[in-house]
Structure to design on (233 residues):
């Protein structure tokens, strides 16, 4: 039985690849089967990481939220035959807020070993830099798009944060970031703390924690910029 390797990729386009050591590069060059969220991103990362194989020697299977069980089982079939498989997200660590989670779940059901490799996680890096509680935290993924439902969710997680002294992390599609920030300011208490971690690892990285009353006076433009929001009441 082979292994499913979880391979982190840069968080931003053309981001640095600094977490791979010589053994990691050797491992990457040994792989011929990959499950990826975006083939173009995957190829670009592999080349930057020192991958020397010709891509006509490589099989890449695409995974998204619509992938079916039978497809994923087929993607992992090489591992049942003793061939290692690599899983890559479009950005960051695979399977965290990512369709790759289903691949990992099925790998366990198929009794395939799963090995995470070290690499950047926007969630953990944002939490580290926020100054908010790293002892107790919850990641909610994407909040509801509907304004009423979103407001209800924001109030609920703010209350949860207050009751348990717990940092609440969530994200949004980058083109809706500004609308989400407006909703947070309008919905939550003025003294609630909010960390905005934007374009983590990029040259214009922006990570700042303020109260909502402070954010209301000077709102950053987050449009189309990958952002993690961290809230603590």
């Amino acid at each position: 039985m082979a292994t499913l390797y979880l391979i982190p990729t840069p968080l931003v386009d053309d981001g640095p690849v600094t977490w791979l050591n010589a053994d990691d590069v050797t491992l990457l060059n040994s792989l011929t089967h990959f499950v990826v969220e975006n083939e173009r991103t995957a190829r670009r990362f592999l080349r930057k990481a020192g991958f020397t194989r010709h891509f006509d020697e490589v099989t890449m299977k695409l995974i998204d939220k619509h992938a079916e069980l039978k497809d994923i089982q087929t993607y992992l079939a090489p591992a049942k035959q003793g061939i290692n498989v690599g899983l890559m997200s479009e950005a960051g660590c695979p399977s965290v807020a990512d369709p790759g989670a289903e691949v990992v779940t099925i790998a366990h059901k198929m009794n395939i070993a799963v090995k995470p490799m070290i690499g950047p996680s926007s969630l953990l890096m944002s939490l580290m830099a926020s100054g908010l509680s790293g002892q107790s935290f919850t990641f909610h993924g994407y909040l509801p798009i509907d304004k009423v439902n979103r407001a209800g969710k924001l109030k609920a997680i703010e209350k949860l944060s207050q009751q348990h002294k717990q940092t609440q992390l969530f994200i949004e599609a980058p083109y809706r970031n500004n609308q989400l920030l407006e909703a947070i300011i309008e919905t939550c208490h003025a003294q609630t703390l909010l960390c905005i971690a934007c374009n983590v690892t990029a040259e214009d990285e922006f990570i700042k924690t303020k109260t909502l009353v402070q954010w209301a006076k000077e709102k950053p433009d987050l449009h189309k910029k990958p952002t993690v929001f961290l809230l603590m009441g």
Summary: The beta strands are 3-7, 33-36, 59-62, 85-88, 113-116, 137-142, 167-171, 193-198, 206-211, 227-232. The CA atoms of residues 146 and 152 lie 10 Å apart. The radius of gyration is 19 Å. Residues 3-116 form a domain with the Cobalt-precorrin-4 Transmethylase; domain 1 fold (CATH 3.40.1010.10).
